[in-house]
Amino acid sequence: MTAPTDRPRIFELVSLLLTYPDDELLDAGAELRAAADRIADDTVRGQIEEFLDWLLRATPIEAQRHYVQTFDLRRRSGLYLTYYLHGDTRKRGMALLILKQRYRAHGLRLADGELPDLLPVVLEFAATVGPGEGEAPLRQHRTGIELLRAALAESGTPYRLLLDAVCAVLPELTDADRAAVTALAVDGPPLETVGLESLGHGPDLPGAALAPYPACSPSEAPR
């Protein structure tokens, strides 16, 4: 079982590693390895260390190109969690607003143009606020996290290791959770492109006005 002190460490480190690998991140290899070494859970520590081995061996151009190809150019592996459940609908606009209000209540301010459902932001909030209120967005968007995890595993990207690490410390999936993941993997999110303008994000929002979500068979859903 994961030690209580491990959870914020894991969430904080994975939050950082899921951001764009700019020079500042890549130059912090020693600090990143030291942070990974402080994780007590052998399995999770090994997953993050394996990811760091890949990231720090790659050239900056290789790492940056891979990040863009993985998260920005593949609809099935976007980092915006509300899209998996709500697509571009009014419900998504409301979900984004609720997340913003939750963060504001705990003193977390978003950078200009940053959406509150970006997975690194959700993980940062969990690390900062802790179990209960802090991890509630992760639990609420577990279906999206599992779909992202499955897409990364299918593509074979090293980023799959970071999602494996996160899911290793989240509660076990219930049968209902698995059914929801399978159903959404088959049907995809709604495609109505309305309801986001009030948050300052219209059709340019990642995932807006996309073609139908690529379906996968139930056997491809996370186990």
Describe the structure.
This protein is mostly helical. It has a single domain (6-220), classed as TorD-like. Helices cover 58% and strands 0% of the residues. The chain is built from twelve helices and no strands. The protein has helices spanning 6-17, 23-26, 29-37, 42-57, 60-72, 81-86, 90-105, 119-129, 136-140, 142-155, 160-169, 175-187. Helix 10 crosses helix 12. It is globular, with a radius of gyration of 17 Å. The protein starts with 5 loop residues before the first helix and ends in a 36-residue tail after the last helix. The model is unreliable at 193-223 (pLDDT under 50).
Keywords:
223 residues, mainly alpha, TorD-like, 12 helices, 58% helix
Predict the CATH topology: TorD-like
| Amount of beta strand | under 5%
Q: Write the CATH architecture name.
A: Orthogonal Bundle
Count the E strands.
0
Average pLDDT works out at 84
Counted up, domains total: 1
Could you name the ranges where pLDDT drops below 50 across 5 or more consecutive residues?
193-223
Principal-axes geometry comes out as globular
Estimate percent helicity: 55-70%
Please work out how many helical segments DSSP would assign: 12
